Amino acid sequence: MVDDIDYGNLNKRIVFTENDHRHAQLVTRLRYDGLTQSDFFRSIVTGYIQGDERVAEFVDDIKQQSEKRKRKSKKLRTEGKNNVHALGLNDEQLIDDIFDIIAEEHPDL
């Protein structure tokens, strides 16, 4: 797994500034949801890196790109999701079942 790879310094800081009011709103909302700032940001970063469709859709909404490209990106995500469901897989089964399907079709691998 990727977590086992030693890339050197594992204590990298990601820092940005925000005004007092928005920071207070964030802290209040995080407390309401029972999250710490580090848990929240690590989860968002992980979702972004791993291509979580919920995060990808949000990023598509906020990033600067043409409307044509936004439509194409959304279409490709939808088609991919439809293909997964057409195979009779759900998101939890996807990885394990794909390897099972490959093993059945190519037993020599």
Give the strand tally: 0
- Please report the number of helical segments: 5
Q: What does the overall shape look like? A: extended
Low-pLDDT residue intervals, each spanning 5 or more residues: none
Instruction: Tell me the distance between the termini.
Output: 21 Å
Description of the molecule:
By secondary structure, the protein is an all-alpha fold. It has 2 domains: 1-50, no CATH class; 66-109, no CATH class. The protein has helices spanning 20-33, 37-49, 53-62, 67-86, 94-105.
Please describe the structure with a list of short key phrases separated by commas or semicolons.
single chain, 109 residues, mainly alpha, 2 domains
What layout of secondary structure does this protein have?
Blueprint: H1 20-33, H2 37-49, H3 53-62, H4 67-86, H5 94-105
A few lines on this structure:
With about 110 residues, the chain is mainly α.
